[in-house]
């Protein structure tokens, strides 16, 4: 009975560390069989087989769903990126072109001078500002009484609930050259000449407006998640800190941040992924749909190649590049964070 | 099983009608008997401000004629091309039976094999001689016609008649006068845009390219080559963008406008004169009744008199290769001829695709219609008839060129050379 229980409690962890388990087992399995040809071998082998298959059996439904929804499209995009694809009635024809699309993509000046810098700098700015603003709002919410916390939460959730399309149009409207609120304000204080300024044609103001839009849309999620983390921190820690003479700044960096580091990890990774693949907010802005190549980001570039030029291969190659980029960032980020965690232990 | 029941039902009904009416209805051929069938129809949203009652009536008439039902699904211009492509990839089960297809999309869709070649059917119905030539040509590739021209539109110059009279401006007849008129308007009506040079409006710019005698691209031995950086084309682009960059007749905010924003500004009464489609005057008056009686139109003046050619665009009603294609053709015929064609043209302010119907419109002598009809019949132009040009449009090559000139990032020649390079890359890819 105890062994069975033991096995049950072991299997999930074994399944959780799937890649590791897969590495060690094939090496370990053949060893005992020839070394101890005892009558127990058959029973032992069966038990091992069950031990090996059960976690995968239990994981199978989830893995199948994930594979169908995530892996299959990913493989298809990967396949497309190696082809010249032509749409035909009832199913298109792909001609294998090898890595041509990647070669074209990686040697294009547009990618290095415009697309990648736009994507990366925009994402970095957005993630930084979203996390900072979200955390500040969370700290504020944490200090508020129940009623005000509810009111403020509802207000910021409204920003989050707003569809990206609607939000984008509101920001465009606010920054409308000459007639928009911000253009008028900036004109009134002599910052710009409204008649000759069009925010949307230059890279920097264009992305500044897009950043406002994305941060405004993204900070509520961070605020709510961080707030949930803050609520789990025992008050005693702060009391002890105060007794030791730590000021608010020190309490934040020495108590709050280390305690809810996993929460920051999650919101940063999610924000990074979201902000790297921003599409709607850029595409809908004047000039963002391809008429101003200075403001291309990877998402828009991929879309224009695939769905405007019908060059599906090139579009897919750009999409794969985006995926790899995100994967690399996420892996590096997670590794550094975990390493830091280990050192502290 | 279900199908057999339906078939039995049809047979039974046919039998009953045959006994009831004798030979009269027995002559119907089975292809156009649509009892129990439903045609899926894709129509673009926005052409007709309220298309629902129109299609309700058309569906009722069609049901009476063939017994088939019509299911209309409205599509957005901005996303339809992608949706069509996806459906075509999916095959007969995914595409609609009948769809409104923009003329510049026809080459792309026809090449995939999704559209039905209806040349013979048009001939049989005796319709081919009556079709507006430029429009018929737009949907005919290698002698095969892929649908029926449904409606067409063309852009000319729309202006504020009241302001012209007030400041004693004569409608311009050449480019010099156009500049002069716009300059006077800017001086006397400084709050209004004298002549919007809208960076996102491709078909505003093309009129001046054609007007200077230039071309977007030329075909030689079946191969297309861009001509947008030829001296004549560049002259046209330079004149058009110069209205904003040199003459300052169009403020910076207009640099990123598309035709939609120009229309919005008209509705707010912020424009004195602009390029505008034949569908715009009525829409403007509807949105801003104060402007009733204050609008007028003229064909786009030519460089030294005459007219500049302007894009003649429109929509086809095409049938897709589904099992209902014969029935679908009947519905196309119903909509593109006679009563329903005239009604659609009237409700949408577009021109019908048939000469006989177009003449009826022209005969009404409406001053807000006649200049457009003249432009359409005498100075209409079409864009290169190839799948590649659809891609050039979708990737915004011309707006990109205009916007880079307007924002001062490139000279006219540089921008035109870049556009020519972009175009040729797409032509080369599709060969």
Automatic annotation (TrEMBL), chain A:
Pfam families: BPD_transp_1 (PF00528). Residues 1-43 are annotated as: Disordered. The chain crosses the membrane at residues 56-75, 120-141, 148-174, 206-231, 252-274, 312-334. This is Sugar ABC transporter permease. It comes from Streptomyces solicavernae. Residues 1-10 have a biased composition (Basic residues). Residues 116-333 form the ABC transmembrane type-1 domain. Belongs to the binding-protein-dependent transport system permease family. PANTHER family: BLL4140 PROTEIN (PTHR43227), DIACETYLCHITOBIOSE UPTAKE SYSTEM PERMEASE PROTEIN DASB (PTHR43227:SF8).
TrEMBL record, chain B:
Residues 1-20 form the signal peptide. It holds the Pfam family SBP_bac_1. InterPro entries: SBP (IPR006059). The keyword Transmembrane helix does not apply. Keywords: Signal, Transport. The keyword Transport applies. PROSITE patterns: PROKAR_LIPOPROTEIN (PS51257). Belongs to the bacterial solute-binding protein 1 family. This is Sugar ABC transporter substrate-binding protein. It comes from Streptomyces solicavernae.
């Amino acid at each position: 009975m105890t062994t069975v229980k033991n096995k049950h409690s072991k299997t999930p962890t074994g399944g959780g560390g799937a890649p590791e388990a897969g590495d060690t087992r094939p090496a370990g399995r053949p060893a005992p069989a020839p070394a101890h040809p005892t009558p127990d071998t058959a029973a032992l082998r069966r038990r091992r087989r069950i031990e090996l298959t059960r976690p995968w059996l239990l994981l199978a439904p989830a893995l199948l769903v994930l594979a169908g929804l995530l892996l299959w499209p990913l493989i298809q995009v990967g396949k497309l990126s190696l082809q010249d694809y032509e749409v035909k009635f009832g199913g298109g024809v792909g001609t294998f072109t090898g890595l041509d699309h990647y070669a074209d993509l990686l040697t294009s000046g547009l990618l290095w001078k415009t697309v990648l810098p736009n994507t990366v700098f925009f994402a970095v700015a957005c993630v930084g500002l979203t996390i900072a603003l979200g955390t500040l709002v969370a700290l504020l919410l944490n200090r508020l009484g129940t009623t005000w916390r509810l009111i403020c939460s509802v207000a910021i959730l409204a920003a989050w609930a707003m569809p990206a399309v609607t939000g984008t149009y509101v920001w465009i409207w606010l920054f409308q050259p000459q007639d928009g609120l911000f253009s008028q304000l900036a004109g009134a204080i002599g910052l710009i000449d409204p008649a000759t300024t069009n925010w949307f044609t230059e890279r920097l103001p264009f992305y500044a407006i897009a950043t406002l839009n994305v941060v405004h849309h993204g900070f509520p999620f961070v605020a709510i998640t961080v707030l949930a983390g803050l609520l789990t921190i025992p008050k005693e820690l702060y009391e002890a800190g105060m007794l030791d003479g730590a000021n608010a700044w020190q309490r934040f960096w020495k108590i709050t941040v280390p305690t809810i580091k996993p929460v920051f990890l999650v919101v940063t990774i999610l924000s990074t992924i979201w902000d790297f693949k921003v599409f709607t907010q850029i595409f809908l802005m004047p000039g963002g749909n391809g008429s101003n190549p200075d403001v291309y980001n990877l998402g828009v570039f991929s879309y224009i190649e695939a769905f405007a030029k019908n060059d599906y291969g090139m579009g897919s190659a750009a999409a794969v590049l985006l995926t790899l980029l995100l994967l690399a960032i996420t892996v590096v980020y997670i590794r550094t964070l975990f390493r830091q965690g280990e050192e502290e232990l | 099983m279900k199908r057999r029941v339906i078939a039995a039902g049809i047979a039974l009904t046919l039998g009953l009608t045959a006994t009831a009416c004798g030979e009269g209805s027995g002559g119907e051929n089975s292809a156009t008997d649509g009892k129990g069938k439903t045609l899926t129809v894709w129509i673009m949203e926005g052409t007709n401000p309220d298309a629902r009652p129109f299609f309700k009536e058309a569906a009722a008439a069609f049901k009476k004629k063939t017994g088939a039902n019509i299911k209309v699904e409205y599509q957005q211009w901005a996303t339809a091309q992608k949706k069509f492509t996806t459906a075509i990839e999916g095959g007969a089960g995914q595409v609609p039976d009948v769809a409104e297809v923009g003329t510049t999309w026809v080459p792309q869709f026809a090449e995939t094999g999704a559209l039905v070649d209806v040349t013979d059917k048009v001939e049989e119905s005796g319709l081919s001689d009556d079709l507006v030539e430029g429009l018929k040509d737009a949907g005919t590739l290698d002698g095969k016609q892929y649908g029926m021209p449904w409606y067409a539109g063309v852009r000319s110059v729309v202006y504020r008649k009241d302001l012209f009279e007030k400041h004693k401006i004569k409608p311009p007849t050449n480019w010099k006068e156009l500049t002069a008129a716009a300059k006077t308007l800017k001086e006397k009506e400084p709050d209004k845009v004298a002549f919007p040079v809208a960076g996102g409006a491709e078909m505003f710019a093309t009129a001046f390219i054609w007007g200077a005698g230039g071309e977007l691209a030329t075909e030689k031995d079946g191969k297309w080559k861009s001509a947008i950086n030829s001296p004549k084309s560049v002259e046209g682009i330079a004149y058009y963008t110069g209205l904003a960059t040199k003459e300052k007749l169009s403020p910076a905010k207009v640099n990123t406008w598309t035709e939609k924003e120009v229309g919005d500004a008209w509705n707010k009464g912020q424009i004195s004169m602009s390029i505008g489609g034949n569908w715009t005057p009525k829409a403007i008056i509807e949105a801003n009744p104060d402007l009733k009686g204050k609008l007028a139109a003229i064909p786009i003046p030519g460089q030294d008199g005459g007219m500049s050619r302007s894009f003649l665009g429109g929509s086809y009603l095409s049938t897709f290769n589904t099992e209902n294609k014969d029935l679908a053709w009947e519905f196309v015929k119903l909509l593109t001829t006679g009563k329903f064609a005239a009604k659609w043209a009237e409700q949408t302010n577009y021109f019908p695709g048939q000469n006989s119907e177009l003449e009826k419109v022209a005969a009404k002598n409406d001053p807000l219609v006649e200049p457009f009809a003249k432009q359409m019949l005498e100075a209409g132009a079409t864009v290169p008839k190839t799948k590649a040009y659809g891609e050039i449009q979708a990737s915004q090559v011309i707006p990109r060129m205009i916007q880079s000139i307007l924002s001062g990032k490139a000279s006219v020649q540089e921008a035109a050379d870049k556009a020519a390079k972009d175009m040729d890359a797409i032509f080369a890819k599709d060969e």
